[in-house]
Amino acid sequence: MANTPYPESYYAASANTVPPRPALQDDVETDVCVIGAGYTGLSSALFLLENGFRVTVLEAAKVGFGASGRNGGQIVNSYSRDIDVIERSVGPKQAKLLGQMAFEGGRIIRERVAKYNIQCDLKDGGVFAALTAKQMGHLESQKRLWERFGHTQLELLDQRRIREVVACDQYVGGMLDMSGGHIHPLNLALGEAAAVESLGGTIYEQSPAVRIERGASPVVHTPQGKVRAKFIIVAGNAYLGNLVPELAAKSMPCGTQVITTEPLGDELAKALLPQDYCVEDCNYLLDYYRLTGDKRLIFGGGVVYGARDPANIEAIIRPKMLKAFPQLKDVKIDYAWTGNFLLTLSRLPQVGRLGDNIYYSQGCSGHGVTYTHLAGKVLAEALRGQAERFDAFADLPHYPFPGGQLLRTPFAALGAWYYGLRDKFGM
Question: What residues does the FAD dependent oxidoreductase domain cover (predicted)?
Answer without folding.
Answer: 31-381
